[in-house]
Amino acid sequence: LYSQVEFADTSIIITEPYFNFSSIQESMTEILFEEYQFQSALRTNAGSLSAHHFFHTKPSELCCLVVDSGFSFTHIAPYCRSKKLKEGIRRINVGGKLLTNHLKEIISYRQLHVMDETYVINQVKEDVCYVSQHFYRDMDIAQLKGEDNTLLRDYVLPDFSTIKKGFCKPREEMVFSGKYKTSEQILRLANERFAVPEMLFHPSDIGIQEMGIPEAIVDSVQSLPEGFRERLEAELRSLVPAHLPVSVLLPANPVCYSWEGGKLLAHTPDYDEMVVTREDYEENGHLVCEDKFDI
């Protein structure tokens, strides 16, 4: 595919974090136009593309709040009529990387040294971890012995010879007394399954002095103008009296939701007015991007 793309005839949409360093923005623009020679470029945020997708599918909605939890951090970003309200954006320095690293530490302390196995443990996290709906109840279950512990999972680690990818043993094949009579290397996971994702909601539990997602949402909404705040307060269960309705949307494929938004954006009639062309850049330099892109 790479060899089939004529960059000089191609427009690119590229995402970057909110409030990205200007030096990085400038370097990115330089690479796009001077090294790859793209015909035009649009720099934006993944959250903005998600908001565009949302408003496209729900045109009657005026406001939304995007919770974008990624690899390095989580952003809370409010939008009104597809425009982000910068004063309401909140960043939490907790993302998938931190969760994986914390799981590595727990497993290394309790069972097996895996501090050098980031890729493998990241797969373990994705396969067995979940967000608890009743944290203290799950903690009680996780302390039970044998088959009474319904949360217990045995994870077979890959050896990259006969086992290419790790997997959970089926419940009926788990050994609850004694040891397995196989050469498989197995991790036994119980409260780790839900205690690790809990960091997204209560990072202070492990000494990280950051707001969790619910607190960040409250803080974001409270910083917004009255009209926006009232609208969002009517849609978030965690922020309002119980009798008010709640609307929380989880896309069918969250990973591609921003990409789908970018695809929709690229086909809007006024797309050409949003981009900076190579001609604009060659004539005016990086300043034209600062004026055009609201990052």
TrEMBL record:
Subcellular locations according to the entry: Cytoplasm
Record keyword Coiled coil present: no
Pfam families: Actin (PF00022)
Annotated keywords: Cytoplasm
GO cellular component: cytoplasm; nucleus
InterPro entries cross-referenced by the UniProt entry: Actin, ATPase_NBD
Chief location category: cytoplasm
Sequence similarity: Belongs to the actin family. ARP6 subfamily.
Protein name as annotated: Actin related protein 6
